[in-house]
Write a structure and sequence with these properties.
The structure is a homodimer. By secondary structure, the first copy, chain A, is mostly helical. The first copy, chain A, is built from 25 helices and eight strands. The interface between A and B is large, with 70 and 70 residues.
Chain lengths: 580, 580
């Protein structure tokens, strides 16, 4: 395992491109270019589709796939991550913009760019301040639940395009209600075309590659053929719609997509808009960062490389700022396209820059061809892509492992489906933290005894151990802090109240990693109360950092008993007849 | 130490009065009645003063000191707690009502009663649902900082009465700004009377009791004499104001206080008002509960009794509902009056009921005498009472013990002074939890070695221990959960990356009290990566509950190494030559 060589100069820490570009050669460029072609083919329909999912004009998806990729190639630390519009962040963008209640298309586009800019600034700040660890507060079960629920929401939101109707809503119930209300307006041709395209794309995903291989293609070429499936669907439905004049028969089409370079755009600096978008931008930043980092780490591990999470923040921040300045909307590293990029042989972030050139060429040359593209085709692309995100097995796994983790997943899924993505992910984080605090506020305390013929002590309820009637040893299985200190006090007092011969209580601090000031006051109080009952309080196996801190208080002067380095020493001394 | 005998019948669990009333006798009644007289004398001026502090008519303070005391006598579990209006809760009431921007006195009184009602319902619900443990999330440093800052805010807010001017504000800065702006309107007579009264009351507190004792009074009588000081100040300033017609010369007086029984009042059930008051009611409930419980526990411990926190919630909830129904405002157990009640010999909650009779008599008979009572006198009473709450020594103590605890205290004090009580206490809780999570998200990991001639392992940096070049043992000093799992993974990989001969990594789980699902996935990943590097991963000293959970996952099948009961077994087996 080797870290990427980032430490040649201080500047190289912030510009990974300075490291890899010095050893860049023709072979690497060839690999990167081939990967870029494959990713470009995949990204063109996806970019258009995700922009529509975000409630934005299709061309913003293309713009978000050009400059942001170049910015990431300069600032990002992952060698395989492919940045651009992704499904979950597009849905979150739709929710954030929807909150504003705007109707003017120019105002909506400005808000989307501003959202990308705020999100970029937040990511850059987090990167510079080394706050990447904050993402750890999203637990795996919460992320898994959130992604699954988002996949369902996204697929449901696209059904309106398959039916050719209007429907809106940010939660599953409001979406379904709106769909049913408008079901009578469904367009038959659109429905047939949407269902056929969806079926075709599912078949491409599952059945085309084996078929091509059986027809004699190499696996590599078969793979590229399967990746081109969505492009084929786009081409065929465009030709059908144009040739049969289906747009005159109610099939909704993408319409005019401006041809040319991405525009230079400025985000809004209105304080009112910033404060309305700020929380959404925070959530988009964190979700985007978590999604990117987990993809990047998975891919880096396969080549025994490691990524630098704080540098990823800088890379993603620069991408979003670039997106805001070039007519785009919030972007992040996508799972599917990064895996494709990696499998296609991308060696460096230059593959991203080459992809940007591919998308730029599409924006310059191909947009007139997209006029007759049915929205139903893009919806089918999205539905097939996001349904692979839906994975309820996390519920079963969590149930088997821990009811608390299960509660976090289930609540995140239900709240995301019921209240929308923003509430869902916020609630998921709060629930994870609350459940963790609840668990640690009622610590496990084990009464321990000596395992015969050893110096080892274990729980009296689980192991056959020796005990002494006048000596109680309690192993506290949690750090002591404000939320659980009182619990320990009550536990110890309850244990000794009804048991007459007890003369010594030993608290075995093996698992106590911290004693904060609230807990110190509680232990002082416990010492005093036990003293009034004629019982000595001892501590054993106190760790270095905890001991350092106790020495700075008056506690050690007041302690009625002793502090033993090892629990064995406490047992040895306190079990002698004189101690009873 | 004996628990109060609450377990005779299921009903007695919820009605502690059923327990103590059966053994109630004439001696106890006499003790309770004497304590009640002393508390009544103390409570009359305090009730009036705290009502004014809350921005309410003086009589509401009296009403809040009658029925709530009876309700607590029936439902409360502490035998010494004296319930009624207290300084901090009155200030919080002022802040909550101030948020509403009301001007009509009837609407203000209705809002105050409704606040008491909501707070009572919250407390009752918390009691029935056994949620008393939630109060533990207010750490001692946060409470200490909050009380100190509140004392300063309260004293400052009363200066306007001493100067005889108008001033408003919920933070120290806005209060001082408002005071300075109006300083030119100060009334000379009011200022002299206010300063003289304040000086007199400070002297009563410090100097009167020793003086009375030196004059031959028994300590007990001297104590009662000192308690009567505020009553004397009230009587003298009333007589002066009436005799010299000072109210005609700009001295502000309490004015007409209605004579008679507390009125029967109904809280408002307007959803808009409830939603505006709800968060304030939550904060008032929690602060009131914490204040009460800490007083009650301190006093109960002196008689080797214990209180039942969840029953205290019921007692305080009933008191607040009673206050709402009888013209009062939020109440809780007060520190000073409870100590007085206890010292005066109160034996049972009946002392509270007797105090209620005393206050009722005052409301029925004495209110006309209060007409000429200067507001400056009441302000002086409050200032002298609350300055005893101000204690900056907590800052020094926290600094010496732990910088994190210091940060929590300092932030709570600054935010309470700067932004008011509600923001201060909310921020204090959030800061405590955030700092705790931050600490646990970067756990202490110690590399350990064998203490020679023992079976004991300690940190290689702190102790002289044996180690083996091919074997690294890391003791993880924290439970593994979503926020810190990644940190451990990085730590272990960094440790082994540059050290060639390592063949075995043992994670000593002595202090790992929990491994949640996120952490499990991270440890699985670590196992896989170490495996790819040819390093075996072992665990030692895994606790019962953690082991149970690991058995429910696939982790144990995939683990490249072994699980050892004791770290000594791991050392013994893995340090043999064959293991290298």
């Amino acid at each position: 395992m080797t870290l990427p060589n980032l430490s040649n100069s201080p500047l190289a820490n912030y510009l990974p491109i300075l490291s890899w570009s010095r050893t860049y050669n023709r072979d690497m460029a060839t690999s990167d270019a081939i990967a870029a072609v494959i990713v470009t083919i995949m990204l063109i329909p996806q970019s258009l589709a995700y922009a529509l999912l975000a409630g934005l004009p299709a061309e913003m998806g293309l713009y978000a796939s050009i400059l942001p990729l170049v910015a990431y190639a300069i600032f990002g630390s992952s060698r395989a991550l492919a940045v651009g519009p992704v499904a979950v962040v597009s849905l979150m963008t739709a929710a954030a913009i929807g909150n504003l209640g705007l109707t003017d298309p120019a105002a909506i586009a400005l808000a989307a760019g501003t959202l990308a800019f705020i999100s970029g600034v937040i990511l850059l700040l987090m990167g510079v301040l080394k706050l990447g660890f904050l993402a750890n507060f999203l637990s795996h079960p919460v992320i898994a639940g959130f992604i699954t629920a988002s996949g369902i929401l996204i697929a449901t939101s696209q059904l309106k395009h398959i039916f050719g109707i209007d429907a809106h809503g940010h939660s599953l119930i409001s979406l379904l209600g709106s769909l049913f209300a408008h079901l009578g307006e469904a367009n038959g041709i659109t429905l047939w075309m949407g269902m056929a395209t969806t079926g075709f794309l599912f078949w491409v995903r599952k059945g085309l590659k084996p078929l091509l291989i059986s027809k004699g293609l190499t696996p590599r070429l078969a793979d590229i053929g399967a990746k081109a499936g969505p492009v084929a669907a786009v081409a065929v439905t465009i030709l059908l719609t144009w040739g049969l004049g289906l747009d005159q028969k109610g099939v909704k089409i993408v319409g005019e997509v401006p041809m040319g370079m991405p525009p230079a755009t400025m985000p809004s600096f209105s304080p009112a808009l910033w404060s309305q978008l700020f929380m959404s931008a925070v959530l988009i930043s964190i979700i985007g960062f978590v999604e990117s980092v987990s993809v990047a780490q998975t891919l880096a591990a396969k080549k025994r490389q490691r990524i630098v999470p704080d540098q990823e923040l800088v890379g993603l921040g620069a991408s979003n700022v670039a997106s805001a300045l070039s007519g785009g909307y919030p972007v992040t590293g996508g799972f599917a396209r990064s895996v494709v990029n990696f499998d296609a042989g991308a060696e460096t972030p230059a593959a991203g820059a080459f992809t940007a050139i591919g998308i730029l060429l599409a924006a310059l040359l191909l947009t007139p061809l997209l006029y007759f593209l049915p929205k139903a085709t893009l919806a089918a692309t999205i539905i097939v892509a996001v349904l692979s995100l839906v994975d309820f097995s996390i519920l079963k796994k969590a149930w088997g492992y821990s009811k608390i983790d299960f509660a976090a997943v289930a609540a995140t899924i239900l709240l995301t489906l019921g209240l929308g993505v923003e509430m869902g992910v916020s609630a998921g984080v709060i629930i994870s933290i609350a459940l963790h605090l609840y668990k640690t506020s009622r610590p496990h305390v084990a009464e321990v005894g000596l395992v015969p013929n050893t110096q080892h002590f274990r729980n009296i309820l689980r192991h056959k151990v020796e005990t002494r009637p006048h000596l109680v040893t309690l192993r506290v299985d949690e750090s002591l802090y404000f939320a659980n200190a009182r619990f320990l006090e009550d536990y110890v007092l309850d244990r000794v109240t009804c048991d007459e011969p007890i003369k010594h209580v030993v608290l075995q601090f093996t698992a106590v990693n911290e004693v904060d000031m609230s807990a110190l006051e509680t232990v002082e109080e416990l010492n005093r109360r036990l003293g009034e009952m004629g019982i000595s309080l001892h501590l054993s196996e106190v760790k270095g950092p905890v001991m350092d801190r106790l020495k700075r208080s008056h506690f050690l002067d007041e302690l009625t008993g002793e502090i033993f380095l090892a629990q064995w020493d406490a047992w040895d001394k306190l079990s002698r007849p004189g101690a009873a």
